[in-house]
Amino acid sequence: MAKLRTLIKREESYGIHALIAVAENPGISAAEVAQKLQVPPAFLAKVMRKLAKAGLIESRTGRGGGVWLKTDPQQVSLLSVIEALSGPVVMDTCQTQPKCATEQRRGHCNLKPVWILGSLEIREILERFTLDQIIEKPG
After folding, report:
1. Is 137 within the bounds of a domain?
2. Which residues form the domain of 44?
3. For residue 54, what is the domain's CATH number?
């Protein structure tokens, strides 16, 4: 079997899973999140700092401390989490340039529209799904 390459980074996956754990268990400790997800605590701590900086979670230390969502789960799309952690989602950086190397050489590029369409489709799907749709609700 060929080696798999994922479209999303490990950091992004951990971030999404961490937000789900926090949404389902308000006040959970970061250590508990790391344990539940079987993620190295130091790596998850970096991810959680980025999520906090983006305003998605807040944490409190000491007695009664833990991690809580800071934003309504209906307002948190998968795309917003990924972009909070890693920046804009595009298939290839050539699509962000006015003229890629191929366009400069040939005057046109047949691949660039494919990358643009792929990026738009992926962004649309990731924007469509929110934490609220993914989390397990009590009941």
Report:
1. no
2. 10-132
3. 1.10.10.10
CA–CA separation, 19 vs 33, rounded Å?
Answer: 9
Find the mean pLDDT for residues 5-28: 96
- Band of residue 10 on the pLDDT scale cut at 50, 70, 90: very high
Inter-axis angle of helices 41-53 and 10-24, nearest 10:
80
CA pair distance 50, 135, nearest whole angstrom: 21
Q: pTM above 0.85?
A: yes
- Residue 53 is encoded by which pair of tokens? 């900086």
Q: Answer whether residue 108 is part of any domain.
A: yes
Whether the per-residue pLDDT at 17 is higher than 80: the answer is: yes
Contact 111, 102 (CB under 8 A): yes
- What are 74-98's pLDDT values in tens digits? 999 999 999 999 999 999 888 888 8
> Are 134 and 75 a contacting pair, CB within 8 Å?
no
In a domain, 124, yes or no: yes
Number of domains in the chain: 1
Residue where the block lists tokens 């390459």: 5
